[in-house]
Prior knowledge:
By secondary structure, the chain is α/β, with parallel strands linked by helices. The chain is 44% helix and 12% strand. The protein contains 14 helices and 8 strands. The chain has an 8-stranded parallel β-sheet with strand order 7-6-5-4-3-2-1-8. Helix 3 runs parallel beside helix 5 (119-132) and helix 8 crosses helix 10. The chain starts with a helix and ends in a 5-residue tail after the last helix. 45% of the residues are buried. The protein binds phosphoenolpyruvate and magnesium ion (MG). Magnesium ion binds at residues 143, 183, 204, 206-207.
Amino acid sequence: QTAETKKYLASDGVTKDGVKIEVELNIGSANAQEVHDIQYTDGVGLFRSEFLYMGRDTLPSEEEQYKIYRKVLMQAGNNPVTLRTLDIGGDKKLDCLELPKEDNPFLGNRALRLCLQHRDIFKTQLRAALRAGTIGNLWIMFPMVGSMDDIRNAKAVVREVQQDLDRENIKYGKNVKFGIMIEIPSIAMIADLAVKEVDFASIGTNDLCQYTTAVDRLNQNVAKYYQSYHPAMFRLIRYTVEQFNKAGKPICVCGELGGDKLAMPVLLGFGMRRISMGIASVARAKKIISRLDLRFAKEMADKVCQMETAGEIEAYLKDSLKDVI
Ligand code: PEP
Ligand code: MG
């Protein structure tokens, strides 16, 4: 990163034509550095909670989780903290929870599916989160949602936890928002329905690409088939953004494409107004936003959705954005 780019780190993400874009932070350990970096962003768009469960023999207690969620919420102030519930399985394993071996773990019992099965683990996390939600602006997000049933089942567990807390006279956040990751094509394609059941959503382009192109995101042998600029990706994202914007509910991108210098302007062209990324991409993203005119971004976005291949789209974006990136 050049010194010139770094200057943008603490700036506001405003487009050339004056539209504010919420630039949020992805965090995955809540260590001192990550907590410090929150100040450069408009909140935490993705708080991966897996670290709490990894590399240890026992599950994290409610109290332990509560303290960490509280710390992050305090630092973010009024800005949102989007806490993603446990996304384990697939490539991520736990020592503190023995899981049966599966032939296709990425298509198996992972994330929300696993949490719905291991209710005790899920409920402990939700209790800790809801209790921490009395401070700050907490958004709870469920990963790997594929159907309306998934959303309703997750919300039913939340209601159970809220009732438990009520019964025990324990205070919890009453204004917590509930949302989903959109990272399975089946839920993206019914975004018009899903939006009615949630307060917000965030598109996980890493898994969305994996499941749309049918490519294991870790398998180097087929890496060339993992096409993030595949026209199908842009069309799915466009459709999802349109449905959420129509409903007036927040929609964000927290996968790699959100901080990607070529794709991010297209996302804004679709009407996306929130993007979340690792700290390493924040300054550059704000710089690109400040040089981008949204009418131009919209024109590009329309063109991209007419194109036939990822290669064609990439070449077009490189050429069109050469004065911006
Ligand atoms: C994604 O899938 O795009 C995402 C943000 O989640 P993860 O990379 O943790 O699966
Ligand atoms: Mg994911």
